[in-house]
Amino acid sequence: MSSEDRRILQRDEFAAIQQLKALSPTAASLQSQLALAQAGRLSADSLGAGENGGSPVVGEQYLVFSLADQELAVKAEMVQGVERLIDVTPVPNVAPWVKGVINLRGSIISVVDFRTFLDLAQLSVTPRTRLLSLHHNEMVICFLVDGVSEMLPIPTAGIVPVNARQAHIPHWAVPYTAGCALLANRNLVLLDVARLLFSEKMQHYAALG
Q1: What is residue 123's predicted lDDT score, i.e. its pLDDT?
Q2: In 3D, which of 179, 175, 197, 196 has the Cα closest to residue 188?
Q3: Distance of alpha carbon 209 from alpha carbon 204, whole angstroms
Q4: Residue 71: which of 182, 157, 175, 194 has the closest Cα?
Q5: In order along the chain (209 residues), what is the average pLDDT of each group of 10 residues?
Q6: Which 8-state DSSP code applies to residue 187?
Q7: Where are the domains of the chain?
Q8: Helix/strand/coil (H, E, C) string of 102-170?
Q9: What does the buried/exposed string (b/e) look like for 79-110 if buried means 16 or more CB atoms within 10 Å of the residue's CB?
């Protein structure tokens, strides 16, 4: 990367971070880390070493979020952003799990209530509720999730295929799961964003954005 390209990238990252002033510190920090991860410049050192001062974990970056008391993760490269809940404009004649649309930095994006989509019990909005924007190719969808916690490197060797660890994956997540990662006392379900966004259920309504 040339010095000029690096300056442009840094300028764009600074502008994106400035747009996050309305977000909570946690969301802003995650967005900043996300921008660096997607630029390929988020090192393991920037996320800290292990709890006992051991060597940092090296692996592909994942964004961890929660839904129905389960921790899930998606590849950072598939995440467009993390936002606090903002006003959603309802749209008539769509699936019940489509809450409506939002104007996200000039783009009109569909908002999906992830709990309703997965036929899970509803949960009242809390200060931790977030909008998680996922994208694949040219498709972008915002998912309403219970919370977003951190960026985490997960080594490929630590990912177990879905069929081998079926017992560790909630039944509602199985159709959209790429596998799971057992890290210390945590069980992270890794979602396949392409499988989710282009699932038959997701495609079975008029595209909004």
Answers
A1: 86
A2: 179
A3: 14
A4: 182
A5: 54 45 47 53 40 57 95 96 92 91 90 95 92 93 95 89 69 91 87 94 64
A6: E
A7: 55-203
A8: EEECCEEEEEEEHHHHCCCCCCCCCCCCEEEEEEECCEEEEEEECEEEEEEEECHHHEECHHHHHHHCC
A9: bbbbbbbeebeeeeebeebbbbbbebeeeebb
Host H or E run for residue 26:
helix 25-38
Report residue 71: phi and psi, to 5°.
-90, 130
Cα–Cα distance for residue pair 40/15, rounded to 1 Å? 18
Which residue reads 């940092």 in tokens?
Answer: 56
Q: What span, in angstroms and rounded, lies between the C-alpha atoms of 178 and 191?
A: 5
The encoded tokens of residue 15 equal: 């502008």
**Yes or no: domain 55-203 corresponds to CATH 2.40.50.180:** yes
Q: What pLDDT is recorded for position 57?
A: 56
Is residue 183 within 8 A of residue 158, CB to CB? The reply is yes
Sheet holding 159-160, edge to edge: 147-154, 60-67, 70-75, 186-191, 177-183, 159-160
Q: Which residues contact 206 (CB under 8 A, 6 or more apart)?
A: 93, 94
Q: How far apart are the C-alpha atoms of 111 and 98, rounded to whole Å?
A: 6
What pLDDT is recorded for position 35?
55
**What pTM does this model have?**
0.72
Q: Which amino acid is at 89?
A: T
